[in-house]
């Protein structure tokens, strides 16, 4: 349904481009043009609401716990988009150390997502920690590392000041805030400590 709506919107946008820009703009057919624009706007709102509804349905901790790792990464990406971050996929070099790259107000963060049952151990973050240790003194490396998980972190990881940790409590807080204020587009959840 959503994919078909997006295809229809794309075709409508191309047709509107033809009508308004490529073709001479005249008085005839103004009502048809306005109807086309209104239809496109309505379709955009329907898709936005459907996307929001789907996200809210997936925003239950039991559903998050049952997701596989790839779906969890997509969920975290959507979560950060809704918080107000720009989300992008990592480059092939960055894929070794992170799952997502998020940016907000010129600050870049590398996100590593762990979806598992049980505590996250320090050994699981060896690649990230090695990268941080090697690149910590480089002036070009201004990105911070965020580890997002549906589980809790071991005490060893919590003692690291190089990582920003977002555990199960962060997800629960996000879910609760989404439930409380569904009308706000940008939520007041801070990424930094």
Q: What does it look like?
A:
The protein is of the alpha/beta class. It has 2 domains: 2-58; 61-180, 3-Layer(aba) Sandwich (Trna Endonuclease, Chain: A, domain 1), CATH 3.40.1350.10. Helices cover 51% and strands 13% of the residues. It contains 7 helices and 5 strands; from the N terminus they run ααααβββαβαβα. It has helices at 2-22, 30-58, 61-66, 69-83, 126-135, 155-158, 168-180, and strands spanning 86-88, 100-104, 107-114, 144-149, 163-166. Strands 1-2-3-4-5 form a 5-stranded mixed β-sheet. Helix 5 (126-135) links the parallel strand 3 and strand 4. The longest helix has 29 residues, at 30-58. The two termini are 40 Å apart. The relative contact order is 0.11. The model is unreliable at 185-193 (pLDDT under 50).
By secondary-structure content and strand pairing, the structural class works out as: alpha/beta
Mean pLDDT value: 78
Number of helices: 7
Measured by DSSP, the beta-strand proportion falls in: 5-15%
As a whole number of angstroms, the C-alpha radius of gyration is 21 Å
CATH topology of the largest domain: Trna Endonuclease, Chain: A, domain 1
The CATH architecture assignment of the largest domain turns out to be 3-Layer(aba) Sandwich
- What count of structural domains? 2
- Helicity range of the residues? 40-55%
Spatial separation of the terminal alpha carbons: 40 Å
String of helices and strands: HHHHEEEHEHEH
Tell me the overall shape: elongated
């Amino acid at each position: 349904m959503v994919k078909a709506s997006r295809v229809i919107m794309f075709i409508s946008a191309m047709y509107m481009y033809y009508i308004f820009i490529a073709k001479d703009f005249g008085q005839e057919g103004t009502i048809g043009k306005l109807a086309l624009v209104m239809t496109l706007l309505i379709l955009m709102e329907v898709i936005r609401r459907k996307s929001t509804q789907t996200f809210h349905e997936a925003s239950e901790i039991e559903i998050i716990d049952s997701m596989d790792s790839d779906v969890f990464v997509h969920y975290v990406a959507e979560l950060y988009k809704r918080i107000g971050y720009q989300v992008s996929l990592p480059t092939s070099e960055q894929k070794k150390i992170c799952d997502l790259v998020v940016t907000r107000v010129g600050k870049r963060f590398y996100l590593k997502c762990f979806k598992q049952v049980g505590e996250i151990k320090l050994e699981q973050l060896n690649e990230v920690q090695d990268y941080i240790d090697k690149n910590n003194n480089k002036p070009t490396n201004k990105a911070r590392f965020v580890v997002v998980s549906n589980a809790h972190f071991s005490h060893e990881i919590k003692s690291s000041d190089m990582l920003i940790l977002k555990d199960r409590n962060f997800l629960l807080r996000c879910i609760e805030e989404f439930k409380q204020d569904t009308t706000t587009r940008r939520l007041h959840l801070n990424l930094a400590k």
